[in-house]
Every structure is written in C-alpha cells, then in structure tokens.
Amino acid sequence: MTSVALLPDPSSPLARESAAQAFADILDAKTSEDAVADFLIRLAERGETSIEIAEAARALRQRLIPIAAPADAIDVCGTGGDGQHTLNVSTAVSLVVAACGVPVAKHGNRAASSKAGAADTLEMLGLDMERAGAQAEATLRELGICFLFAANHHPAMRRITPIRRKIGRRTIFNLMGPLANPAHVTRQLIGIARPDYAPIYAEALDQLGSDAAAVVAGEEGLDEISGAGPTRVVTVGAVPLPARIVPEDAGVARHPTIAIRGGDPAYNAAALRRLLTGEHGAYRDAVLLNAAAALVLAGRQTDLRAAAAQAAEAIDAGHANTLLDRWIAWS
C-alpha cells in the first residue's frame, strides 16, 4: 500500500491529475488507513480547493451504483453538519416539489450528526428502505420521486466510513453527498453550512457539469435557505435566483431557527405528517421557502413568491400528502 510520503502533498493545492489519482487510490484501497487519515486531516486544515472537491466527487461517481432518471430530475440535499438539529426540511421539500410535478431523485442517509436523517424519518413514516431502493427507478418514473439511500449506492465508501469515524472531524468526504447522486442529476439545490465556502463548492459543481444548481448557506451556518434571516446563494448555470435571499422574498414570515428544532425519528416523522396535512408555522414556512427556490431552479417558476404559492397549493390540496401515502404503499 502507498505510504503517507507517496500521497500528494496536501499542504499546497493539488493539480487536477494529482487530485484524481489521490482519490482513486483512496477509494480503491491502494493507500493505508493511516495514510488516508493523515492526508484528509491535512487537506481539511489547509482547506480544500474546488478542483479537489470536484475530483473527489468524480472518483466517487465513477464507483457508485447508478439509476436511470429523467433529464429534468432534481435533488434537494444538504451537506449536513450545521449542528442546528432541525426538522427534515429537504425531505419535506422533496415531497412538495415532486407533488408540483418535478421529478425528485432524493439522495440521503441516516443521521450522522443530527438525531434523525432523511432515511430515519422516512422509515418511521413507513417507507421500507430496502424496497424503496430496489424500486427507485420505478417510483421515480411512476410517482415522480425516489429515495436513494447512500449506503446502497456507494460501496467504495465502506472503506472510508471507519477512517472518518476514527478521525472524528470534518473532511472532504463530508461534502460528497450532494455531489455523488446515483441518478446523475444535473439540477440541484444544495445546502452547505459554511457560507464562505459556497463559491468554492459552486465552482466544483460547475466543473462537474451541472446544468442548473444553487448552493445556499444560511448566514447563521444553516445548510439550507434560512427562515430566520439572510441566506447566501451562489448559482451555476442560468438560475434566476438572487445572490441573497430572505424569507420575505417568498412571502413567508421569519422564525428563529430554534422554532424548527427537531428530535428523534418519531418526532420528526410526526411533524412532517402534520405539515403535509395542513399545519401552519415555522416548519411550513421553511419548507415553502426552500421549495420555492427548488421550483425556480427546476424552471417551473421565475419568481419566489409565485413558486411559494405553488408549493403551498401542493400541500393545501393534499397532493404532497397523497404522494407520500402512494410512495409508502409501493414499499
């Protein structure tokens, strides 16, 4: 196995070829675990470049188990790690946006730093993870939504997981989830908990061939469009979203982030069901705000207020709740 000394020196930015080779070797287990841990730690301490993020994602994409998806499918996903422990906003947004007629290939996982990840909450609602994965192409085609459980599609990450656990801190692999969707979507609303890093992340998306994407970061460090205040937005492609979004842009009220504080999977699942059956409040407004941006990104609207109204109609008419019930019935 390659030693630490033979890996590229992460104290200076890696050239594209060096980055590609380094991450190929890491994912193919051609480097020792100690070498990988040392490399990832030093890379994080220096700060990853857009080239390194793009090449890590490209290496992971080349090793994933893919599914077929419509060309206009989108994903709504965050990198996680914001420490806010909120309710499952992107999961609810995925259901609402799909109920508006946009195919959604939702990529997600179980909780890592929060109490309930997308998979945990959907499973508590009755979605069978194994069957949902096996029928992902069919439900995306027939219902307009699927859940791509990361553990089922990224065998190369099995080697990385214990290394990340041993390191116990953020590494470049914390950024990979949204960049390695098994449906190869080219339209994405991605939340990142580091506003200063949004432009670098967007550059990586551009290098990976995104058609239309928006990287959003709440200024308080939230990995979604914040319902509490301003959010930084960096777009890729022709996406008519402003560089700064506040809740009022979509016609919704501001709420402190603590108002959407989540809990365990049962708590989050109950909150999501109440949302879909018409409950108003901070959770609904956060979902409408993010769904509005996703609908604009998908080309269904050009105005956040009109998009939020469309999302509200999908909830109030029962379309999003019915979609969830149909999805569960498939599993």
UniProtKB/TrEMBL annotation:
Cofactor(s) demanded: Mg(2+)
Residue span(s) of domain Glycosyl transferase family: 72-320
Subunit-level organization: Homodimer.
The organism of origin for this protein: Sphingomonas endophytica
InterPro entries: Anthranilate_Pribosyl_Tfrase, Glycosyl_Trfase_fam3, Glycosyl_Trfase_fam3_N_dom, Glycosyl_Trfase_fam3_N_dom_sf, Nuc_phospho_transferase
Associated pathway: Amino-acid biosynthesis; L-tryptophan biosynthesis; L-tryptophan from chorismate: step 2/5
Pfam families attached to this UniProt entry: Glycos_trans_3N (PF02885), Glycos_transf_3 (PF00591)
Residues at which anthranilate 2 binds: 164
Keywords: Amino-acid biosynthesis, Aromatic amino acid biosynthesis, Glycosyltransferase, Magnesium, Metal-binding, Transferase, Tryptophan biosynthesis
Residues the entry annotates as binding Mg(2+) 2: 223-224
GO molecular function: anthranilate phosphoribosyltransferase activity
Residues covered by the Glycosyl transferase family 3 N-terminal domain: 13-63
Annotated signal peptide: none
Keyword Glycosyltransferase included in the entry's annotation: yes
Function summary: Catalyzes the transfer of the phosphoribosyl group of 5-phosphorylribose-1-pyrophosphate (PRPP) to anthranilate to yield N-(5'-phosphoribosyl)-anthranilate (PRA).
Enzyme Commission number: 2.4.2.18
Name assigned to this protein: Anthranilate phosphoribosyltransferase
Known catalytic reactions: N-(5-phospho-beta-D-ribosyl)anthranilate + diphosphate = 5-phospho-alpha-D-ribose 1-diphosphate + anthranilate
Bound cofactor: record note: Binds 2 magnesium ions per monomer.
Enzyme class (EC, first level): transferase
Residues annotated to bind anthranilate 1: 78, 109
Family: Belongs to the anthranilate phosphoribosyltransferase family.
Residues noted as binding 5-phospho-alpha-D-ribose 1-diphosphate in the record, renumbered to the chain: 78, 81-82, 86, 88-91, 106-114, 118
